[in-house]
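[step 3/7] inverse_fold.run input=structure_tokens len=287
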């Protein structure tokens, strides 16, 4: 046991861990995620997992790409789930590493169901979801007492590839002061039209945050009415989340990430130094 007395689970052979890798910045990984990466035999990861995060894997771990971007052939969801079962049945420690949180628009639920169907034991490690992290890195709190007491996550992309047909636009427009929209870029024009048709003001502020928490992060502040045009004009690179609501205006004061005039560069400490600090063995004298 270390000085801190923190113990982490052993990754047993034949298990699958569904782990959230967060939105990009490796500093936003959980300790459970790092523990998983140090023990896994095989890692099935998707397109949204940052290369800097993959560097934390055991060097001899087998890497299996299951993403859908970058021109490589897309993997069917059922194939991925069954692949996890196959590896687990071979008695490997199987890490399924997904962007953000595995259970937020990440199909972690589907993969978990397949594991249940095949009697494969599994653990879920939540991750920081892109909507909340992206907003925070843009200086936008997803809730703020003066603005909203609720927030809604919505996807602009259903399994058919179109806007999901089970969205109740009237309820969303009326009932949800802040909307955090995932996979909304392709259909942003239709989404904003639906919200405005159901009573949302076109002047409401909307933030588009792309490649959130990575060095390439971009932020576009627009309005509900102008969002689709502005996104097209600027040519926003995916992935991107949209935040709609009064909270977007708080960025004017809370934009902590923008370089201030007198701060040119963020000073850094190496990750190894942090690891060394927390891995110092307990002092036997004190026990
Ligand atoms: N499970 C993920 C979401 C997967 S759906 C999570 O919890 O974050 C994929 C969508 O997530 C993208 O279309 C985009 O809307 C959003 N997304 C993921 N990573 C992002 C990032 N770094 N910056 C902005 N949006 C991101």
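[step 3/7] decode complete -> sequence:
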């Amino acid at each position: 046991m270390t000085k801190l007395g923190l113990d982490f689970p052993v990754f047993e052979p034949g298990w699958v861990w569904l782990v959230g890798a967060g939105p990009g910045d490796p500093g936003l990984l959980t300790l459970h995620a790092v523990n998983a990466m140090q023990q896994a035999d095989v890692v099935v990861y998707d397109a949204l997992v940052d290369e800097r995060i993959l560097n934390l894997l055991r060097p001899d771990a087998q890497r299996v790409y299951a993403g859908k971007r970058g021109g490589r052939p897309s993997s069917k969801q059922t194939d991925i789930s069954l692949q996890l079962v196959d590896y687990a049945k071979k008695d490997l420690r199987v890490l399924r590493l997904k962007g953000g949180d595995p259970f937020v628009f990440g199909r972690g639920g589907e993969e978990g169901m397949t594991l249940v169907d095949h009697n494969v034991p599994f653990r879920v490690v939540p991750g920081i979801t892109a909507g909340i992290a992206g907003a925070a890195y843009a200086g936008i709190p997803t809730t703020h007492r003066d603005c909203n007491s609720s927030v809604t996550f919505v996807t602009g992309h259903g399994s058919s590839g179109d806007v999901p047909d089970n969205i109740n636009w009237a309820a969303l427009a009326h009932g949800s002061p802040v909307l955090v929209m995932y996979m909304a870029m392709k259909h942003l024009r239709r989404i904003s039209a639906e919200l405005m048709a159901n009573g949302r003001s076109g002047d409401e502020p909307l933030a588009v945050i792309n490649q959130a928490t990575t060095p390439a992060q971009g932020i576009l502040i627009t309005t509900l009415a102008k969002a689709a045009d502005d996104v097209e004009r600027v040519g926003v690179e995916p992935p991107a989340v949209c935040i709609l609501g009064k909270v977007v205006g708080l960025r004017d004061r809370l934009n902590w990430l923008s370089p201030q005039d007198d701060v040119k560069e963020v000073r850094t400490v190496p990750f190894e130094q942090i690891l060394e600090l927390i891995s110092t063995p307990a002092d036997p004298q004190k026990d």
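[step 4/7] annotate
Residues 131-286 form a domain with the Methyltransferase, Cobalt-precorrin-4 Transmethylase; Domain 2 fold (CATH 3.30.950.10).
Residues 23-24, 48, 98-101, 104-106, 129-130, 134, 182-183, 209-213, 239-241 surround S-adenosyl-L-homocysteine (CB under 6 Å).
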